[in-house]
Amino acid sequence: MKRTFRNLFLLCFLAFGLTAAAVQAAVNISRLGAEQGLSNNYIMGMAQDRNGFVWVSTESGLNRFDGTRFRPFRKGGGNSPMSNELNRIYADTTANVLWIANQRHGLDRLDCSDYTFTHYRPDTGNPDAIGSPGVTDIAPAAGGKLWVATYTDGIDLMDP
User: Which residues are within 8 A (CB) of 139 and not within 5 positions of it... i.e. 6 or more apart?
Assistant: First the structure.
């Protein structure tokens, strides 16, 4: 009886080990970084838009990945993010927009249909403006509103 139990235990152990090895062998990981065109390897956030593009926010700009290559969006020119130093991003797939938290320059809204940016900055004279230039995170709220978290001024509830 003791020997049968030991043989059964060994058989189960081997079966589990072979199953784990088979599962591990099936995993395929591809690493994407600056060598493949990403603006920086320090990733702050990721989101997927309604069109299937994956957006990546970094310390050196916003990047759109189409499954093959990256297209960077950097500060400069008339239609660009306010900053290259970004925090989290949130894709609103209903409105087809991407919300981008800037570390020191407020909040950006990117229309994913025509790639136009709208900028939201704090304005002490406007009580409806966001409260801080240092936006850390964005999350959806009920009724199409957004929670906007900041470094120093708490949380704003924004109705775009």
Answer: 90, 146, 147, 149
Q: Which of 66-80, 107-121, 122-136 has the highest mean pLDDT?
A: 107-121
Contact (Cβ atoms closer than 8 angstroms) between residue 89 and residue 100: yes
Angle value at C-alpha 50, between 139 and 88, nearest 5 degrees: 30
Tokens of 113: 């249909």
Question: Across 49-115, where does the E strand assignment appear?
Answer: 54-58, 61-65, 70-73, 86-92, 97-102, 107-111
Instruction: Report pLDDT digits (tens) over 80-98.
Output: 999 999 999 999 999 999 9
Query: Do 118 and 109 touch, CB atoms closer than 8 A?
Result: yes
- 39 touches 60 (CB < 8 A): yes
Interatomic CA distance for residues 125 and 105, integer angstroms: 17
Number of C-beta neighbours around residue 108 at 10 A: 25
List, for residues 7-41, the tens digit of each pLDDT value: 555 454 555 554 555 556 789 999 999 999 999 99
- pTM for the model: 0.81
